[in-house]
Amino acid sequence: MSTWKYMLLTAAFAAPPLHAQEAASAAVAPAEAPASDRIAAAQSLIEVMMPAAQREEMMGQLVAVTMANVSAGMQQHFGAAELAADPKAKTVFDRFVARQQQLTVEQLRTQLPGLFDAMARAYARRFTVAQLGEIETFFRTPTGRIYVTESMNIMSDPDIAAWQRQSIASSMERLPAELERLSQELKDAGVQTDASTQS
Q: Which residues form the DUF2059 domain (predicted)?
């Protein structure tokens, strides 16, 4: 398999965590609805933590930073020289990454109301009305407001970004062997794959 196919596969594996909770939640049995006063307190807290007017922008920034780190991690693994050797392929790959970012942002935009409704119920199950009020009080303090502002910027911190790039690069090192193992296990199980039909 070519270098660029490995890169595209890695990008495909790296992107799902941005919205993987949707699939995970589908497998969980519905929980009992929290009391309405808890839900109201949780909604009030979430509005302070992530104001509705800023949610799309905040999530868009998170997606952009994550995709940038994913792309940088793959380039770190393969090396700038190898990437520069095939500028046409790099252009296609960059366009692919940009498209995944756009699609993820668009998906989040349509799903944000459901996400924050789910968050409100999750908070309401774990905290009492009094506890939710105390947490909200903190977020209304000067320190709490700074936390709200800076918490979404944490992923773009140089140390976090460097860790994420290294994590992606490390994942790519084991990807070829894992793909070969997958192909062999499918073959052993009698499953026809593109590789087996072409051999």
A: 117-156
The CB-based long-range contact list for 142-150 (8 Å cut-off, 24+ gap) reads 144/48, 148/48, 148/49, 148/50
Half-sphere exposure of 71 (CA within 13 A, CB side): 19
Tokens 């756009």 belong to which residue? 102
pLDDT in tens, 83-105: 667 777 778 777 877 888 788 88
| Pick from 104, 16, 116, 114: nearest CA to 60 | 104
- What stretches in the chain show pLDDT beneath 50? 1-9, 12-13, 16-26
8 by Cβ neighbours in 10 Å (0-12 / 13-18 / 19+) ranks as middle
Q: What is the pLDDT of residues 45-55, one digit of tens each?
A: 999 998 888 88
Residue 44 CB partners (closer than 8 Å, separation 6+): 132, 136
- Coil/strand/helix, residue 189: coil
| CB 15 within 8 Å of CB 74 | no
